[in-house]
Design a protein that fits this description.
By secondary structure, the protein is an alpha+beta fold. Helix content is 34%, strand content 25%. It has helices spanning 26-41, 124-137, 148-178; strands spanning 46-48, 58-61, 70-81, 84-89, 97-102, 105-111, 117-122. The structure holds nickel (II) ion (NI).
Length: 179
Amino acid sequence: MASYEIRVIGDPVLKQEAAEVTDIDGKLVKLVDDMVDTMYAAPGVGLAAPQIGIQKQLFVWDINDGTGPHAIVNPRIVESDGEWVFEEGCLSVPGLSWEIVRPNHVHVVGVDLDGNDVSYEASELEGRMFQHELDHLNGVLLVEHLDEDQAKEAKRQVRELLLGRQAESKEPSRRLSLR
Ligand code: NI
């Protein structure tokens, strides 16, 4: 069991496209275990491999419906329809959320950790989670789905978030130098 550090907006790894997984081996299963631990510790309902700096097409999720945790490898959306507005957040943009319109219903296919084909029809929270995590595998963050007004405000909010984190990381040394 291990927990990874979650990469935050501004980290270039979050803007890269993840590579297809070619081998489902013990190493990948261990990675999934660690991703699940990291997701629960955060806590979050989904976590994609690029969020911990690993460029693989893989994500884990648990939307607290009693069926999780789950993992999917090389997922893709084959069908989507409807429209749903949902206040969406992201572990890589901590503390911020925006109302984002996306399709309500998606059909996602991929492979599970046994190498079997899997298929999910999902709506609302689960459908949103699939779209959000799949975006991560394509190097897309939720801020890219904002409308013009939201985007303007988000730029400011993200700047403040990053400045706050910078100040936080400097705090211990500042405290030490006061002694
Ligand atoms: Ni996210």
